[in-house]
Amino acid sequence: MNEPASAIAPAPPHPRPDRPSRGAGAPEPAEPIRVLRGGGVAVVVDVADDGLPQVLHWGRDLGELAPGDLAGLRLARARPVSPSALDEPWPLTLLPGEHDGWEGRPGFAAHRAGRTEHPRWAVTEVRTEPARLHVRAAADGLALDTDLSLDDAGVLRLAHELTNTAAEPLALTGLETVLPVGDRVGEVLDFTGRWTRERAPQRRPLAQGSHVRETRRGRTGHDAPFVLALGTPGFSADAGELWAVHLAWSGDAVYRHDALPEARPLVGVGPLLRAGEIELAPGESFRTPTGVFVWSDAGTDGIGARLHRSLRSRPAHPRGPRPVVLNTWEAVYFQHDLARLAALADTAASIGVERFVLDDGWFRGRRDDSAGLGDWTVDAEVWPEGLHPIADRVRSLGMQFGLWFEPEMVNPDSDLARAHPDWMLQPLDAGIRPWRGQYVLNVAHPAAFEYLRTAISVIVDEYGLDYIKWDQNRDLIEAVHEGRANVHRHTEAVYRLLDRLRADRPSLEIESCASGGARVDLGVLERTDRVWASDTNDPIERLAIQRWTELLLPLELIGSHVGPEVAHTTHRAASLDFRIATALFGSAGIEWDITACTPGELDRLREGIAAYRRLRGLLHSGALTHPDTGDDGATATAVISEDRSRAVVRLARHATANRALAPMLRIPGLDPTGRYRVAPVAELQVPRGLDDTPPPWLAEGLLLPGAVLTEVGVQPPLLAPGEALVLELTREPRG
Ligand code: DGJ
Predict the structure, then answer these.
(1) Given this model, what pLDDT does residue 31 score?
(2) Does the C-beta of 404 come closer than 6 Å to ligand 1?
(3) Of 280, 296, 312, at which residue does a domain stop?
(4) CA nearest ligand 1 atom 6, residue
(5) Does residue 516 have its Cβ closer than 6 Å to ligand 1?
């Protein structure tokens, strides 16, 4: 992906006598076809026809196009009149609808007091900036602003903003971002999951019809579709063409794909809007969350590579070294006791931990999970001197101090719920089912918003917090305010609250957590610095969860902790070496009562942390791939530095192998002519493996050209389930 930087090449001017006049102050003459280019991707948009723009191409960059080629492309795309169909050719627009001739799921749906809207759109303004296209269109009583931007990584972001320009209110029930994909797609990939098993892939042949995945959990969800990809048959981690989409949003969502007999296939996303949820008064607007569209011809890793590059280019992407975290949750749960926590902090600092995060249990009335949510002041019984003793201890040991909050939730047994029943999104007397004994605060309520902002700010300032773990532990069923469904406005308000807190304190970092990994999306990640990927610290489960979380996110955004030997969520035992090797590929930490560790265990942890601190610069900036292991029971994860001088590769086994001789481990993406030293990561243990004698190079190390490592590979040991080998590759200086 070393293609030229993004650019927009206007097509040759084309007379358009029949177009509506440009808006007042409209800066540009009408250019009928626009080309957005970036990262080897091109998006060609035709704004020449009546109605909304049509996408003529989204995929590989088409290279330099001679004058007239774009008009030729439009002609090449022009459809015939199919048998038993509309009498005229019809356009497949950016917001497909019945007026165009589209009979799949519409991109826009609204009514005025029951009268259906079938808008006749006409483009009124087209504006271009480098790598951006803005199109304004109008219809009777409606205005639509569409923004497309393609970045240097080839990631396209698309959003619509609808304004009600009529004198009557408009009930909006659908506004989705949709793009056509290649006709050659044949398979569909998306994701599902549950608590402690997030982001499980599901793959199936593409079937005809309009297919919709709705989420109605009021949060992103453990079973979020996450990324929906349509691919060429047989696509794999490193091969095949894919057109993928993700909705940058933490509320209810629609992921859709359409394969109708009479049209090109589509993929799209949008907010799920419930009846009555969005009513636009005259002059009011609604902006969709951003649809993030990614094309690649290099399999799922190609999709990941573009997304990682795109995220890393954000001005607010976390840049400093991702600190080693000690989170207190599985170490002490609600048993907050200064002496115990101080001992935990001492031990953590002694092995190299850099950030200490006090989890749930510190605030008023919170002795277990039945009470206290909402009362964001320090519990005076447990912490008579406030949190100062523990915060000061942590700081004196050279660590940062972080704190857990769950701002959106309330327990009925809290002063907040007793004082402000009108602030609830789920009224406490409405018979709504509790979830972990808790209900939802309507953050869109101005007074509730202000209460949260003030309460959190007071704590952040008093203790100089470096970090907030922002949790959210229930689905938002029956989330209604004053009779109206309110998930969307509530979610927008949560974003505003996060934005406000960060704007006030730019150095404050925030982690997004929701019963583990139920809020992993690019909407929340616009205002947070990492996600808690899952509540399971079982490394076998974590390997699978992280492998697919990595489709969207680079390693530095994925929180991963070393837990106790027997995982609390699965009761399965795993070796410390395997737990360390799993957490190493992420934003690493520990969640374990390490005061009870043996000296040997602490030494291992110290060595694992040293490896992480030495390698994190590479792990958090390099290109991530998942080399084929030739074996369903093992996963390989490789990170290669941008200049290809260094790499770290982990081979991890979660189930027994089907062969006695492990398949060769081939490492794609290396510099073919560079010579690499290959050796196990020095600070980590080499697994014992099941071979009677291990492969000889493991003891001696290897020096081989990148081409050999890519084409032939190295013979790994036959790992036992629950073992991982972590290798480091270093290119020899040339000359
Ligand atoms: C759910 C989170 O995922 C856990 O890590 C922990 O913070 C608990 N909530 C605390 O209640």
Answers:
(1) 52
(2) yes
(3) 312
(4) 329
(5) yes
Separation of 515 CA from ligand 1 center, angstroms?
6
d(CA 640, CA 635): 17
Atom of ligand 1 minimally distant from the CA of 359 = 7
Q: Is 511 in the pocket of ligand 1 (CB under 6 A)?
A: no
Nearest Cα to Cα of residue 362 among 453, 500, 468, 494: 468
CA distances from 589 to 86, 198, 344 (A): 60, 19, 14
Q: Is 668 part of a structural domain of the chain?
A: yes
Catalytic residues: 471, 535
CATH of the domain at 30: 2.70.98.60
Tell me the β-bridge partners of 357.
327, 402
Residue 708's domain comprises: 624-731
HEC profile for 311-352? HHCCCCCCCCCCCCEEECHHHHCCCCCHHHHHHHHHHHHHHC
User: Which candidate, 178, 164, 135, places its Cα nearest to that of 266?
Assistant: 178
Three-state SS sequence of 260-308: CCCCCCEEEEEECCCCCCEEECCCCEEECCEEEEEEECEHHHHHHHHHH
Q: Report which residue type is found at 560.
A: S
CA of 663 to the centre of ligand 1 (A): 39
- Indicate the number of domains in the chain: 2
pTM of the predicted model, to two decimals?
0.95
Which residue minimizes the CA distance to atom 10 of ligand 1?
360
Residue nearest to atom 1 of ligand 1 (CA): 515
389 lies in a domain? no
Which residue minimizes the CA distance to atom 9 of ligand 1?
515
Tell how far the Cα of 471 is from the centroid of ligand 1, in angstroms.
7
Distance CA 686, CA 205 (A): 41
Distance 332 CA to ligand 1 centre (A): 12
Last residue of a domain, one of 264, 297, 312: 312
- The verdict on residue 497 lying in a domain is no
562 exposure class (CB count in 10 Å sphere: 0-12, 13-18, 19+): buried
Domain harbouring 644, CATH code: 2.60.40.1180
Tell me the three state secondary structure of residue 713: coil
Q: According to the model, what pLDDT value does residue 20 have?
A: 35
Residue count of the chain, please give it.
Answer: 735
Instruction: Check if 359 has its Cβ closer than 6 Å to any atom of ligand 1.
Output: yes
Asked if the structure places residue 239 within a domain, the reply is yes
CA of 64 to the centre of ligand 1 (A): 53
pLDDT score recorded for residue 13 = 36
**What value does the mean pLDDT take over residues 155-176?**
98
- The tokens of 309 are what? 């590059």
Model pLDDT for residues 654-690, shown as the tens digit of each residue: 999 999 999 999 999 999 999 999 999 999 999 999 9
Whether the CB of 329 sits within 6 Å of ligand 1 = yes
